[in-house]
Fold this protein.
Amino acid sequence: MQEAPLNPDAVLAEVFGHASFRGEQGDVVRHVTAGGDAVVLFPTGAGKSVCYQVPALCRPGVAIIVSPLIALMRDQVEALRQAGVPAAMLNSSLNADEARAVRDDLRADRLKLLYVAPERLVTPGFQQMLQEAHISLFAIDEAHCVSQWGHDFRPEYRELSRIAGAFPGVPRMALTATADPATRADIIERLGLENARVFASSFDRPNISYTIVQRDKGKEQLRDFLAAHESESGIVYCLSRKKVEQTAEWLNEQGIRALPYHAGMDASARSRNQDAFINEDGVVMVATVAFGMGIDKPDVRFVAHLDMPGSIEAYYQETGRAGRDGDPSAAWMCYAMSDVVQRRRMIDEGNAPEEVKRVERSKLNALLNICETTQCRRQAILSWFGEQHPGKCGNCDNCVFPVDTWDATDAVIKAMSAIYRTGERFGVMHIVDVVTGKTTEKVTRLGHDKLQVFGKGADTDAKTWQSVLRQISASGLVAVDSEHGGMALTEAARPILRGESRIMLRRDRPKAKSARRSHDGAAMSSGVSSLFELLRSARAGLAKTQGVPPYVVFHDTTLRAMAEAKPTTLDAMAGLPGIGKAKLDRYGAHFLKVIAKAA
Ligand code: ZN
């Protein structure tokens, strides 16, 4: 029995409650619904899942979605069921009875989407079962797992190339949020998708604001940043387990609900904290990079880094966990030169071959340049991924508060001469003591107070000298020894010492501001925001009784639209984004009551 495909726009409106597709989604959906193969390269938050969910509902039969992430499968299946779609998953988290029920549903043609783990898909038994079913399409999510270039390589993904031969005529799609060109080429080759149409959208995340500040008192700076994000969910990344624990504890003392997460905790405490982050509103997760993979929470409003990551790729991926729902979100980092020294030491002491270490060092330097740039940060990040951006994004700290620069040539020469005259082996603190003329025990013991340069920079404060030294090492005029932090001049320093070129440095801000834009460019009025909070708590209640995360009921975006429009009838509510037919039937009356009561 062959039904004709349904209309994608009608499905999008009726099931998902959206009036139109975002960006290139519509092109992908129409192409696949018509039977074409596709490679979809969209950044996180661009709505990749809609690209297979809508065709799955438009085409006859069941769609097979391959995903390596159990948490993500569970969320998607739950969200689809809430929208009235028969969806299921098969993976190691199911017991034998549950798995049997899913297989029965598959045989009886009762499913529209089936999520499976890759190792399950390639078993002969499952392949046989699929041959007897009516398949509408195959979607391979997290397709970068097929590539050895990435960090998430999964050998089972290589087997997925067999699908093409086993199911001729069934459309196949591969989807990933990985921006790296080598990985993209690998996906196409390894999955036999040479003839597929490639949909690549910009990797810009316009709803994320970028702010990078120098670390002074890291915890206090973090607290000031968090003050603008009260009752919002977010992640704070730290480099070490110890720092994770200390930071979480300190935040709790400050009255901020923060939970730790790192690989050294026992598994049950870790998963309890992860569940709380997913299922409750307004939890701050303080974590090492062990946290984040497979977390599909759409309303993470900020990602803060208390230490510098190791590369632009890592920074982009970690900050990218904010704002998947498209609402304004903040990426905030504070860093110090000591981070760079520590990262360099980690690379030097690692077991990687020398050529890999060289690449890692240059990746670290590229991120350091983004930290030190006076230009648009978004432009600099995207340019690392080979993408042109005109700059002046208006949503990074450098664009919102343009950086003041000064001609620092004379100061730089003084600093370099202090480094040179003391034998090119001392770190920032000692050099600052020498230029500012501070007679410490070390200075007098080494006779550095007898040097001509001693006290030559006494008219400038120590903070400014630290900033000068930081910037000249970031720009490569000075090399920093990764073991002791000792500084030495490089070849690049010569033209400045000889007076052949001048150097401009950024003037560090006394108090760094965050570039975050408020929602929709204007803060919610107090009436709207108090109704929003009421709707949020109604949502929390509904989610809790069903044992699902709040965002599975409705996204923040939908609640905000409700708070602004204050609908009084089901018809009016149906026009809001994210409210499809099934959810309107299920929750509409409940939320109308909350709105009426607040009026
Ligand atoms: Zn910018």
